[in-house]
Specification:
about 450 residues, alpha/beta, 6-stranded mixed sheet, about 35% helix, about 30% strand, cell cycle, FtsA/MreB, Cell_div_FtsA, cell division
Length: about 450
């Protein structure tokens, strides 16, 4: 049965904490497709990073210009399949391994948040793993609207007899255990088509991860997620948002506008080809004017001029005047959506920008002005062996997909125990040894 038939995307089982494994991930975007193959090696003691159990060592990387995708959604199945094949093939040849399955990001389908609460009776006993499973299962079982698929079901807080703010209720006494759940959903049709394009490459999709969640896993530091932070991933076709507070992912949103729309604005405003507009944006683009912009000129080849005879020169200030309104619009839309959702209060005073579109000169300063927050550029953290060219904000999502398997267990509600005796560890020495072997190896 297809995982979408019951409204759920594929779920990844937790990594064994003491096992080294090789993982493959696929970042499918409007502008680029990136495949990373990495060895995840267990960390111990002082080497343990916040929220991470393994160290990722890059073995192979494949990078390919996107084809057949618009705003992260598949619009040409054949072209998208070929682009994915080329990216995966390049990573396989570099790593010397064959890829059979991947973890993939998703930014299409209007990623959004829903919140649910659930309670179960504990009966005055100590809370055990079985009780945790029961309440998580109850929280995750809420029906999702037709046409939506569940990407993540994340517990963001527990309550015991009405007392909230409990991070781990195991071993505590109470009569009623509650949980607040953050459920991230996306439109099922774009998600199905993305999954189909990958499966046509003879690859199994192990999990689908919301793009801003993945970017946050790689680019945020522990103190930011504790105090509250907003991550804005400014991609080519979409701008997606994740809010983290109290070390939990508490809100997601997305807008169907991004860096590709800036390129289109430049092409129209300067009457040039899209490829030339992208080049001019990257080389000379900015969101804040400088005193020299009126004196500095840039060469713009017009549409249809193959010989280069009709090149005209415009002041750089004109390019800035085209780019700035679109970036302002994106940031203002993010601000207004956060305020309307109620997540603005949880978002704290910090904003982290990732994605290729955030690299335009002056974007950080413009974001500070519009969002009234401290703003920094986010880059992949804690990934060994990343090529120098892949250490910037455009690769934060791909790197975060390698972090996701290390925390995927919080979404995996398959019970490890069946009875309260087993859950409290009173089922004997051999039962405990058996569970230790299962969990460790």
């Amino acid at each position: 049965m297809s995982p979408f038939e019951n409204g759920l995307t594929p779920k990844l089982k937790p990594l064994a904490p003491r096992r080294t494994t090789v993982m493959s991930v696929l970042d499918v975007g409007t502008n680029k497709i990136v495949c990373l193959i990495a060895r995840l090696r267990p960390l111990e003691g002082a080497d343990l990073l916040p929220g991470r159990s393994h160290q990722a060592q890059i073995l192979g990387i494949g990078h390919q210009r996107s084809r057949g995708l618009k705003s992260g959604a598949v619009v040409d199945m054949e072209a998208a399949e070929q682009a994915i094949r080329h990216a995966v093939d390049a990573a396989e040849r570099m790593a010397g391994v064959r890829v059979d399955s991947v973890i993939v990001n998703i930014s299409c389908g209007r990623v959004a948040s829903e919140h649910y609460s659930a309670t179960v009776e504990v009966g005055g006993h100590q809370v055990c793993d079985l009780d945790i499973h029961r309440v998580l299962d109850a929280g995750a079982s809420h029906s999702v609207r037709d046409g939506r698929a569940v990407l993540h079901s994340l517990p963001i807080g527990h309550m015991l007899d009405g007392v909230g703010g409990i991070s781990d209720p195991r071993g505590m006494l109470g009569r009623q255990l509650g949980v607040d759940m953050h459920v991230v959903t996306a439109e099922s049709t774009p998600a199905k088509n993305l999954m189909l394009a990958i499966e046509r490459c003879h690859l199994h999709v192990e999990a689908m991860v919301a793009t801003p969640y993945a970017a946050g896993l790689s680019a945020l530091v522990d103190d930011e997620t504790e105090m509250g932070v907003t991550l804005i991933d400014m991609g080519a076709g979409t701008t997606s948002v994740a809010v983290f507070a109290n070390r939990a992912f508490v809100h997601a949103d997305s807008l169907p506008v991004g860096g590709a729309h800036v390129t289109t604005d430049v092409a129209r405003g300067l009457s040039t080809k899209l490829s030339e507009a992208e080049r001019l944006k990257v080389l000379y683009g900015a969101t804040i004017a400088s005193p020299s912009d009126d004196r500095e000129t840039i060469a713009v080849p017009p549409v249809g001029d193959e010989q280069g005879d009709g090149i005209h020169h415009v002041p750089r200030s004109r390019l800035v005047r085209i780019i700035r309104p679109r970036i302002e619009e994106i940031l203002e839309m993010v601000r207004d959506r956060l305020r309307g959702s109620g997540a603005w209060a949880e978002a704290g005073r910090r904003v982290v920008l990732t994605g290729g579109a955030c690299q335009l000169t002056g974007t950080v300063e413009l974001a500070r002005k519009i969002l009234d927050r401290q703003v920094r550029i986010g880059r992949p953290l804690g990934i060994a062996g990343m090529p120098e060219a892949a250490k910037g904000p455009p690769f934060a999502t791909a790197a975060g997909l390698l972090v996701y398997p290390q925390i995927a267990g919080v979404e995996h509600f398959e019970p490890q125990v069946r009875t309260r005796a087993q859950a409290t560890g009173t089922d004997g020495y051999f039962g405990r040894v058996g569970r230790w072997l299962k969990h460790s190896f």
